[in-house]
Amino acid sequence: MTDEVLSQSEIDSLLSALSTGEMDAEDLKVEESKGKIRVYDFKRALRFSKDQIRSLSRIHENFARLLTTYFSAQLRTYVNISVASVDQLPYEEFIRSIPAMTILNIFSVPPLDGRILLETNPNIAYAMLDRVLGGRGSSVNKVDNLTEIETTIMSQLFENSLENYQEAWGSIVEIEPLLEELEVNPQFLQMVSPNETVVVVTLNTSIGEASGMINICIPHVVLEPIIPKLSVHYWMQNQQTKESKPEEYAALSETVRTAQVDVRAILGESNMSIEEFLKLNADDVIRLDQLVDEPIKLTIDEEEKFYIQPGKRKNKLAVQVLEEYQGGR
Question: Which parts of the sequence belong to the Flagellar motor switch protein FliN-like C-terminal domain (predicted)?
Fold first, then answer.
């Protein structure tokens, strides 16, 4: 199979030819089985390696899981989102492959340049809207007639979901996604030149009984500064860094061991008035609230940590730790 994307009119023409008998399905199978010569257009050269595409797939698989949890909580219904495909193609082909009227969320991702497009199939968008407004999640496709309230609700719903996108990219780059606008007609949207290579991540989405696609279109200009980080070598470096952390923890633990702390054994406490305190004389006895046969408390930096008992070791006063203090006895 080739990577060519058919427009809706081309698909309709093909189905019409099959139904009228102008074209035979068996002929198509025979033609498909024969060897084909594919013309390679150097103006549309692939700009991402398979390795980098796999890295983008991993990132968006994580995003799909986070998005599933987010929408499940927001819509209070069954939601399932998974990555269907990750492809690179010219921007013009992507625009021709999506519906003429759809939900387009355009957001920037500083500090990276450019903008990312999140296209949501109307079936999914209206199922979300219906759930937010208290419905059962039914879908009514009337994208060309969005009210101001519907536009605001959808914008807020997708804007809040961008926190998950930020988290999904956290292992590669720290971004701050910001929703800029919501559009319904892709023909009015020109983010990059028609021949610019974009990565299109397609997410299979089910919300209740409604199902459809969410497409994320990422122009090459956005990913260009971080392309080296999308390689296996970078992921392996990160893994090695994680594996070396135990040594860092060991060094940190050794530093903590030598830290000075204030340790006190509280033999007991007693309350008295100022008058009684001023009248104290030598050989007076102060009665404490601690019984002789009960363990006393050991504090570390004024926080109670252990039960102990006093004694001597090598003719020096010492305490023996009995058990950890659990709060109350």
Answer: 255-323
Which residues share a beta bridge with 205?
A: 81, 212
Q: What is the model's pLDDT at position 31?
A: 55
Count of other CB atoms within 10 angstroms of residue 312: 8
Q: Cis (ω within 30 of 0) for the bond into 111?
A: yes
When pLDDT is averaged across residues 68-81 and rounded to a whole number, the result is 90
CATH for the 45-242 domain, from 3.40.1550.10, 3.20.20.300, 3.40.50.300, 3.40.30.10: 3.40.1550.10
Instruction: Report CA-CA distances (Å) from 181 to 169, 184, 194, 219.
Output: 22, 10, 21, 17
Residue 282 pLDDT greater than 80, yes or no: yes
107 contacts 169 by C-beta, under 8 angstroms: no
pLDDT above 90 (res 300): no
Is the Cα torsion angle 286, 291, 294, 297 positive or negative in sign? negative
Fold for the domain defined by 260-324: Surface presentation of antigens (SPOA) (2.30.330)
- Amino acid letter, 29: K
Radius of gyration of the chain (CA): 34
Taking the complete model, does pTM exceed 0.70, yes or no? no
Residue 164: other Cβ atoms inside 10 A: 20
Examine the pLDDT at 7 and tell me if it is beyond 70: no
Q: Which amino acid is at 254?
A: E
What digits encode the pLDDT tens for the residues 12-65?
Answer: 667 766 666 666 666 655 555 555 565 655 555 567 888 888 889 999 999 999
